[in-house]
Amino acid sequence: MHTSILRMYRIIYVSLLMVSAGAYSAYGQDTTATDTTATVVEKKIELDSTQTLSEKLTQLFTQFYNDSLNAGLCFEIAQEYMMLGRNAYALRYLETSLRHDPTNMDVVYAKGDLLLAMGKRKSAYQAYLQIMRDFKGEAYVEKIGSRFASPYKITQVTNNSYNDILPSFSPDGSKILFQSDRSGNWDIYSMTLSQGEGSIVKLTNDPEADENASYSPDGRYIVFTSTREDKSVKKYKPREIYYMDNLGKSVKKVTTSYGADNWSPSFVDTSTIVFASDRADFSPHPFWEKSSSLYTIEKSGSFLFKIFHHDSATSRTDPRIDLTGRKILYANNKNGHYDLYMGDMEGEIDGTNLTDSKGNDIQPHMAKNGLFITFSSNRDGNYEIYKMQTDGKDVTRITYDDGDDLFPQFAPDGNRILFCSGRSGNFQIYLASLDDTVKPSVSDVIAALEKKISSASDN
């Protein structure tokens, strides 16, 4: 990944702690308990002294005394262990069931699900691949495919050897803005969607970094951040906010922050800009460790207003204000990771937590109709694009790829989501069509699984 992309990951610094329910000394072996009730023996099964069998397991093992080669019975025992959260024993009985009947794809599927839950991704993908290559694979294509392939048509918008990131739509949806390092540093570009990359126009041409561009609601102006006034040789430079006309002319500076960093600007209306800044944190820490707050300012540089006066030592970022101007959507790491919140512009404390997932939920964008939110999250591993209702309900995963998918934005019609992805090695721009669903084929799922297996591990 291009080193300068790291600055775009300002808010993606929270490392996930993988919490395991038990310790495993070897594949399928639990070293934290001696559950001899689950040991397959010919004549006798002894109850261990630390864990008792459930009533259902007691019944199943009573049958098992006289029918230890019954594959279906082994599967039932495994399912009961899974319900109890005793995964190592569940896996043991799934494998025993498959030794007696290796053709039962329901058991193979359950094994794949269990391995995935245990963090053994490579083995899980191999189990799913076994199913898809079986003559019964067609019956599982939707169930397995929904985990590894997007149900929506995804089109690549830019295709080159550079990095194109942070795309945003024009108000009429005909053009996009994005930043690219194709000239050796970050500059702002525009492109007409219907005409493709041949219509790309370079809007800024400065030796420093121009980033975070988006249009005003009337399409006349473009707001962006830049380090253009910092001529030092520092690796990380604080950004100020600027705006220009939609042709890249008449650049005007909005903020003067004296070393503070500013990012994620967007127009609230034709004159007001909302943004995130660490200007209230005077600690000596590097900027990626500082707390940040949300502000509005007139594009003239006047009337700076801090949202949520009763600040806490957390970082709020990625602000978006709804069309009414009364609600603000943003990301906050007050719980140790980033969740999405919806609050009142006039409020003094944080709003309602909409996501509360185990991962980082970041970079939210609200549909123009105010009904849906799209965002990026690493709740399932790497960063993918999701959609949900504005109350946090009905979360739908949009993308499925090993590369990080970031900075999503709804089209004005609400039927498409623009985003950038590192799936091809460098970052490019893609478009997901929400009104164009596709059902993956067996070959599509096999290809996706083979790709995942090549890079996955059981660690």
The number of distinct helices, counting runs of at least 4 residues, comes to: 7
What is the share of helical residues? 10-25%
- The side-by-side strand order for the widest beta sheet comes to 3-26-25-24
Instruction: Please state roughly what percent of the residues sit in beta strands, choosing from under 5%, 5-15%, 15-25%, 25-35%, 35-45% or over 45%.
Output: 25-35%
Identify the CATH class of the largest domain: Mainly Beta
**Biggest sheet architecture:** 4 strands, antiparallel
What gap, in angstroms, lies between the N and C termini? 24 Å
- Rg value: 26 Å
Extended strand count: 26
What is the CATH architecture assignment of the largest domain?
A: 6 Propeller
| CATH homologous superfamily grouping of the largest domain | TolB, C-terminal domain
Shape: elongated
Mean pLDDT score: 86
Q: Uncertain runs with pLDDT below 50, 5 residues or more?
A: 1-50
* Helix/strand class: alpha+beta
The CATH topology assignment of the largest domain is Neuraminidase
- How many domains? The number is 2
